[in-house]
Amino acid sequence: MPRAAFATLSNTLTDALLGRDFALYRTAFCLPVRIEPRKGQAYTLADDAALEADFKLYCDILKTHAVTDIFREEMQVLPLEDDWVEVTFCTHILRHAQRVVEPFNSQFVLRPCDGAWRIAEIRSTLGHINWTLGRAEIDKGRFITD
């Protein structure tokens, strides 16, 4: 995976979420996509309808918190089987120059799909995933369920 591919994918996600553009967001994923919260129950978004419902919840919580930027800082790229890779990154969620929450680490498992690297799996903190689903809040810079 070229190093620029993760930056492009990250920017696509940020632009789609902040612009509430599901068509752009959809281009970042290879369905079905598995969501695996650390210390939580994994689930799968099997089709466009499930991905769009998840996307709308995420957009709503970003709007509620007046998020203006999401920056993902690549930390490690680990080759997996065949042409799959796991990218570990630190996520920064910002309202202008202020953090909405303390930075946290996540992973994407990426694989080639339709000629581009796309997300096949997301691993993140239980608090972040619950927050994106509108099930948790932030207190003192931390997701409450972490």
TrEMBL record:
Name this protein carries in UniProt: SnoaL-like domain-containing protein
